Amino acid sequence: MRALNSAVACVALAGLAGPAAGADCGSLAALDWLLGDWVAEGTQSTFRESWAALGARTWEGSGVETSRTDPAKSSAEVLRLVEMAGGVYYLSKVTHNDLPVAFRLSECADGRFVFVNPAHDFPKRLDYLREGEDRLRVRVSDGGDKGFALDFARAPLPATDPGTVLAAEDARFASMVAADADAMRRWLAADLVYVHSTGATESREQLIAAIADGKLQYLAVEPAERRVVFHGPDAAFVQGVARIRARSGAQELDFKARYLAVYALNDDAWQLRAWQSLRVP
Hints:
This protein is mostly beta strands. Helix content is 15%, strand content 52%. It contains 4 helices and 16 strands. It has helices at residues 3-11, 162-177, 181-187, 204-212, and strands spanning 36-41, 45-53, 58-67, 74-84, 87-94, 101-109, 112-116, 125-130, 135-141, 147-154, 188-195, 201-202, 216-230, 235-248, 251-266, 269-279. The strands form 2 sheets. The chain has a 10-stranded antiparallel barrel. A 6-stranded mixed beta sheet has the order 12-11-16-15-14-13. β2 (45-53) and β3 (58-67) form a beta hairpin. The longest helix is centred in the middle third of the chain and has 16 residues, at 162-177.
């Protein structure tokens, strides 16, 4: 992998520096703030990454490098973050490689995440250090002195882009399946009203407590037929259908539900303010 393309690839891992010490390094739920767009201005090129959650265990990304002196010159790659076999893996597929290159998350502590692939030519090691809420430093190296560092910043989210709302919804579903309380608080508004398909209503903290304590387990949430409707720059409705597999006490549930979700834009993050679902016969 050429150094320049490696630089593009490493942008995707920027979000891996976010969780605090003690985060679950085997779960994608700890990386939910990576979803969206990131930009780095290099000496000769601008790097942009876009990420969306396809499900609880797979995220899809794209990376584009554009020359600052000649915008017509650009290169792109397909990216994945995958949770499997008790670990998290980052895969990069560039045009000049027949197969994707994989790195495994090997360290996860103190706001720093390290991905390694000792068998790769360059890079062999990717270090990520988060600096503040929306900035981070990434070092790409051979595991020794050879390498370089880049600084990234979160790109503003377009308020009227349906993809940003659906990405936030996918991240919320993933955090509920993973029973990650901190991640759920990022995607659930403080004044949330959550109406289950049974008609039972819970607040944000009641819902988080039920999931975190294991009283309610979401095994999978598979959305489909979603439609996003905006009401101004900071409010959106999602009308959709989802297959929901869950466990409540000793009872295991598997059903299709039609739902209405209300989202509000808060500090550049779409948060769920209201949810109401109805089981489809």
